[in-house]
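Complex record, two chains
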Amino acid sequence: MNPRLAQLQPYPFERLRKLFSTVSAPSGVRPVSLGLGEPQHPTPQLVKDALIESLGGLSRYPATGGEPALKEAIGSWIERRYGLPEFDAGRKVLPVLGSREALFSLTQTIVDASRERATVVCPNPFYQIYEGAAILAGAHTAFAPARRERNFACDLKAIPAEVWRDTQLLVLCSPGNPTGAVMTLDDWREAFALADAHGFVIASDECYSEIYFDEAAPPLGVLEAARRLGRDDRGLVMLSSLSKRSSVPGMRSGFVAGDPEIIARFLLYRTYHGSAMSPPVQHASIAAWGDEAHVRDNRALYRRKFDAVLPILEPILEVRRPDAAFYLWARVPGADDVFARDLYAATGVTVLPGSYMGRAVDGVNPGEGYVRMALVAGVEECVEAADRIAAFCKSR
Amino acid sequence: MNPRLAQLQPYPFERLRKLFSTVSAPSGVRPVSLGLGEPQHPTPQLVKDALIESLGGLSRYPATGGEPALKEAIGSWIERRYGLPEFDAGRKVLPVLGSREALFSLTQTIVDASRERATVVCPNPFYQIYEGAAILAGAHTAFAPARRERNFACDLKAIPAEVWRDTQLLVLCSPGNPTGAVMTLDDWREAFALADAHGFVIASDECYSEIYFDEAAPPLGVLEAARRLGRDDRGLVMLSSLSKRSSVPGMRSGFVAGDPEIIARFLLYRTYHGSAMSPPVQHASIAAWGDEAHVRDNRALYRRKFDAVLPILEPILEVRRPDAAFYLWARVPGADDVFARDLYAATGVTVLPGSYMGRAVDGVNPGEGYVRMALVAGVEECVEAADRIAAFCKSR
């Protein structure tokens, strides 16, 4: 068996199950989970309709590269969303079955494990797939810590020069999971300079890009940043997904876009990897990428939750409205796993210990002392959870 | 970039496009493709209905391991189809997004490339994914040739003992693509003895298992063979798919079943690999695995094509009804690629050169001199194609 499998870290939710195994929610109290980042808003009708309309496509093998109409729809969306004119979707876009699958297969495509100390650099804390994909590709990992004093921006200066020299891939997440931090143009300038100096690829996970607060100020994307800085997209790819944007986590639809040379190698890998998108899902994805009304509604619903929950939690915990995404990243008293366990036992509310999403580097785990709260349930449920958290904190 | 990508062979259909690039079908003649093995029968209504019913599942993340109800439905099907009582679906079944994806990810899970000369043995000729998956897993490949004199059974004796010593995975395909050959109990006995002697895994690709001619004699499967021979399923996995059985190549649904230790490692790999099955597709798959009426109809339709086409081709070419599957494996005069090219230029009929599906070992490519004809179009179209092929052969 593949020995790299033995190097994988336990998954955060596995650790959470273990943490909760000795306690239970109080009886008579309805549990509320702010643990999993699973969008729960209803699926837009136009997506369902497009899927039903195109079920004839079940009797055709999908091409790995995706149908030209889907690539065009994604290309047009990129043009509108990021102000990138004449985006060459035919060469620069590849549909994928969601961010997880894409992050994994892209990492396998890029990493050359035959080179000594091949390294993938990830944010810290981070979405665990980054690390697992690196390990299974045979790479070492290094971690750029989120700095509280810098609005949780990733500190690329924390990575030593000798690590950058071995780096083949830098994964960034903006808006960030779990902190919600959005990278600024200056942040991107710094990342591009490092990539150019050391010749590595940047993969920008932008799966939360459409969940933001100010309709006039959507989060900056990597390809947009490159254009604004007068840089081409060599060595740059973005990953996006419909899961959060259109509340269809069960549809498994996203895309990777950017450097056409990387996209071409990625397509070659995927020809064998075999995750082609079902034709009806391609059709439904075309409908989803082509419509913004349901996305605005979706954002408005998340905004209502933050507006309702923050006044309850802000007086109690160190927590603030994030730049974007649907998480609260809250500093809690004491150890974050003990806090999460005791909170669950006292109130039935599940939050994710921040340390489970981080890795200790030189003894410091930048997730430590925080918990992640995913505002994915209904407004009332989120408010109910916030009330219970506030009462729990006051009682301690 | 991953240097293993550069070792991949050109895909057969890529080579076919190149082969045909200098010729065109005669004008005024409707082209008929027997090239791609893409099932084209209509999707059963019960599958579409189940999908539509369960679109609410688009708003849930699917678990990588699949819903218990799907695993149970697959387990029940295995029990009925292979006479395996009390099949422990919870530990022995994993849903996958079709055979290609599963063959690829299973190979990545099993191969330990850190061991020198890690080897994957494949049939020859064969479905190209076997080789690509092995290369991308960092393994060497070795090939067991199909023997014309043995009804195109794979000759495992052709593999030298020193290759078996380094073998980590033996991929078999029964019913075989492209030959349609079904492995007998004796064939399995030989394969099991080698696996036990050398400690490798057997992955049995059984995606064509439900396309056969005699309703009373379905093809033998690997798990069934093991049971009949009094062997447990240690080191054995089967791969199956709905694509051919239920004519839903665009739904991307299949499963891997067998040795629970392999399934557990495979699940761990897939947690990162990220190809979880969409909940509505899981629901539609439950409906499909639970019904045999549509599968019998499907078989009857393929049978009609063989009954209609064979009397036209048998007097002209060395070709016979295969054991199973929907291919004809026909010996042709001269070089198979020249035959395919000239046939296309003269008649507009596409067939796949057998040599494109084989690899030369010691100067002999066992696909050479054959073409594969996929009887996937309608009955009339298949008959029309056979008539054109017969006329073409007579005119040469």
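Note: The two ends of chain B are 48 Å apart (CA to CA).
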